[in-house]
User: Fold Phenylalanine dehydrogenase from Tenuibacillus multivorans.
Amino acid sequence: MSFITASSKNDNFALLEKMSEHEQVVFCNDPSTNLQAIIAIHSTKLGPAIGGCRMHPYESFDDALDDALRLSKGMTYKCAAADVDFGGGKSVIIGDPQKDKTPELFRAFGQFVDSLGGRFYTGTDMGTTLDDFVHAMKETNNIAGLPEVYGGGGDSSIPTAEGVLYGLKATSNMLFDHENLSEVTFAIQGLGKVGFKVAERLLDEGATLMVTDINDTSLNAIQERAQTTNGSVTIVDSNDIYAQPADIFVPCAFGGIINDTTLNQFQFKAIAGSANSQLLKDEHGVELAKRGILYAPDYIINSGGLIQVSDELYGANKERVLHKTKEIYNTMINVYQQAELDHISTVVAANQICEKMMANREKRNSFFKWSSSPKWHIRH
Ligand code: NAD
Assistant:
């Protein structure tokens, strides 16, 4: 299997054109382990690039490259919004995560990461697991998001859920001028690692929940949990979640759930949840704004996991992470207020705020030589 084929001169220019917004793209090829991977570094202006490693049986080289370029740019914005001293990067391994994984493949990948000399930190993403990176870390120190037994911060869904809760409080504040969640109704899609924790915390605050999942065990567990709180839970069918008469929709399952079909069902006043890539297209963010539905940009409200992973490089500390996660509340309020003031969608407001932060920090960091700073080499 080989996706990387010889190309004409024109193709090479097209490739450079495609990566014109990116600092560096590395193509990794190790025939002895069948590793074919792409590492895309969008920006190291705010610090070394950080971003997960996705493994997927891409149908073409272009699909893999497009994914790496798009996701790494998204990481630059996510890092700026979370105010972590990292830039955006992402890596993709071309292969089937069910069939093509070997310890040697991840060790080879670790060597490529190491060859970048600290310009890129990576860890798990779709199709890769912590175990894969236990192999990769034998070859490089530039792995983030490790299990606690390896000195990492552990389960990132804990700070992610915490961040979502702060985002929900900010959203309630904007909608109702209060943060008493017992007076607010929520429709939660997905009771997995993040959604279940969010649901538990909302129940503890006495909230009214409508929830759905395709997994009956989680549904039974949340019903049982509700009995020990002042909150209440109603189970709804997966297809009916979009039309629930709830104040806030909390998507915590999968992406693309804000689209032409679901938009017409929404009676929600706001949408604020952990799922990645909630808007099927950017235009759907504008449509939400037109309909007066407040939208919490996903890359901000779900950044608790990134905050933990980036903080890990100073030495794992759960309390410090949860403290930093609180800042998501202020960032969300900022985005909502800016959108209201400028009559723009919250997505546009969020992007503008991130771009401004990057421009400001770029000036501040003009003398900042991160690659030689000992602060990035704590685990060495
Ligand atoms: P998860 O796999 O643990 O949970 C997803 C849940 O959604 C599962 O319980 C699953 O049964 C349920 N689900 C699947 N299809 C469904 C459907 N049709 N209707 C209702 N429920 C359905 O994943 P997670 O770690 O909780 O992440 C949830 C979302 O948040 C994902 O989009 C993820 O990318 C995003 N996210 C997670 C983290 C993290 O730290 N875990 C960080 C940032 C973003």
